[in-house]
Specification:
The complex is a heterodimer of chains A (101) and B (184). With 101 residues, chain A is α+β, with helices and mostly antiparallel strands. Chain A is built from five helices and four strands, in the order H-H-E-H-H-E-E-H-E. A three-stranded antiparallel beta sheet of chain A has the order 1-3-2.
Chain lengths: 101, 184
C-alpha cells in the first residue's frame, strides 16, 4: 500500500496540487488564477506554495510582464508522482478502511 | 499518519472538485480568444450587411476563411505538449463546420432570404456552443443559449433591423462571452 503524504494531505495544499496537476505538462498558472481556482486566500496560498516548493513538488517562477510583476506556479514531475501516489493511498483507504502510512 | 476512511473520502472529493475546476478554467481560457475572434467577424459581417455592401455575396466566405486561419493560429499558439483539456479547440472546430454547414443551407435556401439563411446558420452555431458547453463548462452553454435567443428574437421581432441586431447583440454577445470566459 502507498504511504500518506503529509505535505500534500493538508486541505489547501491538496487543492493546489489538484489544480496544478490538471494543467497540461510544462504549463504554469498565475498566482491570481491559482488562488481563484483553488479557493485559497492570498496569505495562505503563498505559505502553502512555499511548503510545496520546499518539498520539490511545485516550481515557482517570478518574472515581469512589462512593469508588472508576475508569479506563476507549476507542478514538477516529482509533484505529479507524489500526488498520484497520495490519491492512490486515499482510494486504498476508502476501499479497505483506515490505514497507517 | 492515520487517516480515517471519512477523511480520505472527503479529501478525495475535494481533490476531484479542484481538478474539475482547473480543467474547466483551462477549457474557458482556450475557448475565449476564439469567441472574441468570431465575435469581431460577426460584427464586421453584419455591420456591412446593414450598409448593404455590394460585395455581400463574397463577404461572409472571405471572413470565414480569415476566421478559420485566425482560429488555427490561436490553436497553434495555445497548443500544449500533452493536450490537456484542449477539447475547446477541437470543439470550436466543430463550430466552424457548423458555419460551413450554414453556408450550405444558405446556398440551398429556396427562398433566397439572407435573413432566413443567416438565422439558420446562427442557430446552428448557438447549438454547437451549447453542445460544447457539455465538455467545457456551463458558461459555454449559456453563451450558446444567448446566441440562439438573440437570433430568434431578431428574426421574429427585429426583422427590419436584423443585421444591426446580429452585429450588436450577436457579435457583441460573442465578444462579451469570450471576455466572460477569460474572467472565469
Amino acid at each position: 500500500m502507498a504511504e500518506a503524504d503529509e505535505i500534500i494531505h493538508q486541505s489547501t495544499r491538496l487543492k493546489i496540487m489538484s489544480v496544478l496537476n490538471a494543467l497540461p505538462e510544462d504549463e504554469a498558472l498565475e498566482f491570481k488564477r491559482l488562488k481563484a481556482i483553488s479557493q485559497a486566500t492570498d496569505g495562505n496560498l503563498g505559505a502553502h506554495l512555499a511548503t510545496l516548493e520546499k518539498a520539490g513538488y511545485v516550481a515557482i517562477e517570478k518574472d515581469f510582464v512589462g512593469k508588472k510583476p508576475r508569479t506563476r506556479a507549476q507542478i514538477t514531475r516529482a509533484g505529479r508522482k507524489a500526488y498520484a501516489a497520495h490519491l492512490q493511498y486515499l482510494k486504498a483507504i476508502i476501499e479497505g478502511g483506515s490505514a497507517e502510512g | 499518519m492515520t487517516i480515517p476512511r471519512e477523511d480520505a473520502a472527503r479529501a478525495l472529493k475535494e481533490a476531484e472538485a479542484a481538478a474539475d475546476r482547473s480543467a474547466t478554467a483551462i477549457g474557458y481560457e482556450r475557448a475565449s480568444p476564439h469567441l472574441i475572434l468570431w465575435g469581431v467577424i460577426w460584427v464586421v459581417a453584419n455591420s456591412l450587411g446593414v450598409l448593404r455592401a455590394p460585395y455581400g455575396g463574397v463577404l461572409w466566405p472571405s471572413l470565414i476563411v480569415l476566421g478559420v486561419i485566425g482560429s488555427v493560429v490561436i490553436g497553434l499558439k495555445t497548443r500544449s505538449r500533452r493536450g490537456g483539456r484542449n477539447q475547446a479547440v477541437g470543439a470550436l472546430t466543430i463550430a466552424f463546420a457548423f458555419t460551413l454547414l450554414g453556408f450550405g443551407i444558405q446556398a440551398l435556401a429556396p427562398t433566397g432570404s439572407v435573413v432566413v439563411a443567416e438565422g439558420v446558420m446562427t442557430l446552428a452555431i448557438g447549438m454547437a456552443y451549447m453542445v460544447m458547453g457539455l465538455a467545457i463548462g456551463w458558461r459555454m452553454t449559456a453563451i450558446g443559449t444567448a446566441v440562439m435567443l438573440i437570433t430568434i428574437f431578431a428574426a421574429t421581432w427585429g426583422r427590419e433591423q436584423f443585421f444591426a441586431w446580429m452585429a450588436l447583440a450577436g457579435g457583441g454577445g460573442l465578444i462579451l462571452g469570450g471576455l466572460w470566459l477569460r474572467k472565469a
